[in-house]
Design a protein that fits this description.
Blueprint: E1 11-21, E2 26-32, E3 42-43, E4 45-48, H1 55-67, E5 73-80, E6 91-101, H2 102-105, E7 116-119, H3 130-147, E8 159-160, H4 161-172, H5 178-187, E9 191-198, E10 206-211, H6 220-223
């Protein structure tokens, strides 16, 4: 068996930045670290890559082991590799961000790792370079959300326009004009209006909609105008 002489091994970690939406706020799922160093401090979902698996397989395995979640939207976005990022050994981290509807998955979250949801503006201090990971994951999320309807992954199958607006405002941490947002959204041709209304938020109620994925490609260009001046958010 051949080996590369003179080279030392490097550990590869997988870290998952899990964004969730509870109907009004965008949140981040964190766990308390179970090993030294920094034991009991807040951390992203993470683990080490095994010799017999791909990074994508490892990310799905770690996510399911730590949270009980599977079949959720995940996207690999960056490798973090500063030599001193982990005080124990030389560790590269491949970072993923995931999107889930909190209400859909809240009963599956495992208690074993003391997982807890935090609003993005109330995030505690994190171990190592995990805060930097979250910062860059938010930027990547904003970029992709301006080009693709990935934020629908955070919503239930049926949703209202005010819910969707609250989600976009949470992601971009800004306020959109109600009428302009609604007009641009409906002009995309991506939404199918339902007969039912959500009457919990007001007496008049708001109609439910569903995403029409079959027309996404043909209406792609109109979706790009949903977020005004997206360049300022990156």
């Amino acid at each position: 068996m051949y080996k590369y002489t003179g080279e030392k091994g490097i550990l590869v970690a997988i870290d998952c930045i899990i964004f969730g939406f509870d109907g009004s706020d965008l949140k981040l799922l964190l766990v308390q670290r179970g090993i030294e160093p920094e034991i009991h401090k807040w951390s992203l979902m993470g683990g080490f890559l095994k010799h017999n698996e791909s990074p994508d397989d490892a990310a799905n395995r770690i996510l399911e082991q730590r949270t009980g979640l599977n079949n959720v939207y995940m996207d690999q976005f960056q490798v973090f590799g500063k030599p001193d990022r982990d005080p124990v050994e030389r560790v590269l981290s491949i970072a993923y961000f995931a999107l889930i509807d909190i209400h859909k998955y809240e009963k599956q979250i495992s208690d074993e790792y003391h997982a807890e949801w935090f609003p993005l503006d109330e995030m505690p201090s994190l171990i190592f370079d995990h805060s930097e990971m979250v910062k860059l994951a938010k930027r990547q999320l904003r970029y992709k959300a301006a080009l693709h309807p990935i934020l629908f992954q955070l919503l239930p199958e049926k949703f209202t326009i005010p819910q969707l607006q609250a989600l976009y405002e949470g992601v971009y941490q800004t306020t959109f004009d109600d009428r302009n947002f609604s007009r641009k959204l409906l002009s995309t041709g991506l939404l199918v209006k339902q007969a039912e209304k959500d009457k919990q938020s007001s007496k008049k109620g708001a109609f439910y909609y569903k995403l029409d994925q079959s027309h996404y490609l043909e209406n792609f260009e109109s979706f790009l105008n949903l977020v005004p001046n997206p360049d300022k958010f990156f």
